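Input chain follows. Return structure tokens only.
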Amino acid sequence: MDVASALRDAAQRLAAVSDTPRLDAELLMAYALGVERQALLLDPTRFVVPDRFAELVMLRMRHEPIAYILGYRDFWTIRLGVGPGVLIPRPDSETLIEAAVGHFGSAGPKHILDLGTGPGTLLFAALSEWPDASGVGVDASDAVLEYAKANARTLGMEERTRLVLGDWASGIDGQFDLILCNPPYIADSEALMPDVADHEPPGALFAGTDGLDDYRRIIPDLPRLLALGGVAILEIGATQHIFVRQLAEAAGFAVACTRDLGGRDRALTLTRP
């Protein structure tokens, strides 16, 4: 079977488990061949289907997340190493970086704090946007911070980054121009797709009966950390705008909302009035 036929066949099979079956097939084929997807698409006739491709497709058929199979996820302008136990970066989270760019422009913030940094998703995306900035990333998992440390090395950002094991902002001092946070915001009773429910860390997904438990902890602690003229940008679930806004306004913030590419409320920008 040639590469084009193998991709068509794999995409048909993957449609049963994925919302993006053709993309998954292309990524798996490129990974099996050891090339970038763009090179594969440019001229698939250059390649022969590797034996490993069938094995990778079977992993995906068993709902293994595509990012775990590949070992990375592209986010904003960077590539992040990820693996089991790490929350996989989502395109929707790029909305937070878009909101930050809209606020700061090219001048950018100087000091950045990323609460719940995971593999460094928001922190390294922001640092890639503003080369003169430095940042602190906090996460509650030692294992996840190892991914963040590896990503800092790969991206050449070690000297600009401090990674801290911690419980949100507890023990963090200083003033930050930009605070980023993508906390867990899924209600405990909400059902998730097998790709997520069976593989990604529950502690990075679920946040109590209404999905708001971590916002209640994070938001009241932000005023002491936010520098004059700075902003805090929080990711929210699509139906949580009003509830999280109320928590932020109670803490003394003015609030603006940025929608993601799907038109859903996704990022709340908190500023001092």
